[in-house]
Amino acid sequence: MCDLNGPFRLCSCSSEINYSDPHWILHMNSTNEGEDMMVIIGMMTPMNLIDKIERRKILRRLNTFNVFDFEYKPIENDQLELNLSDDNGYKFTFKKDKWVIEEWYGEHPIFEHQTLKEGVIDSHPSELKEVYTRYLEVIDKNEEDIVMCGWSNYRISEKELIKLLKKRINGDKIKLPEGYQPWG
To answer: Where are the domains of the chain?
Structure first.
């Protein structure tokens, strides 16, 4: 399983890429200014807590380290896709000297790029995802999964979420944040 919550490296060493496995695609050297727009619409689904934390960590890592296994300095309008599976992943565009995530819905400029590079994602399991796997093994069938139930406006740190999950694993009661309502 690809875990982008912990350290990861974007490797270009593989000559053959299985596109149903985790992989990345980097589009470089745009040849236009993105005048054309593409509008994406669809049903919006709330993000779970782990996805929210993972997105923050990916952006921090992309904007702090060179995560590629080759020398690379992004330029305006470069685009990076991190594909975790056939229908799950992230897309980033380099804007104003930093990577920004492209939301799946709304207007997006269309860029044409001269160069394409791709490879596999090398990642290591994170404590959060390991603890979450153990948590899923102990919750009751009718119990709400605190990671999945809509905390859409709630921000929690990775350490706090791990602490909550571990409490439940140990059989302790979990106190939900004040004003918390499932899916709300």
So the answer is: 8-123, 127-169
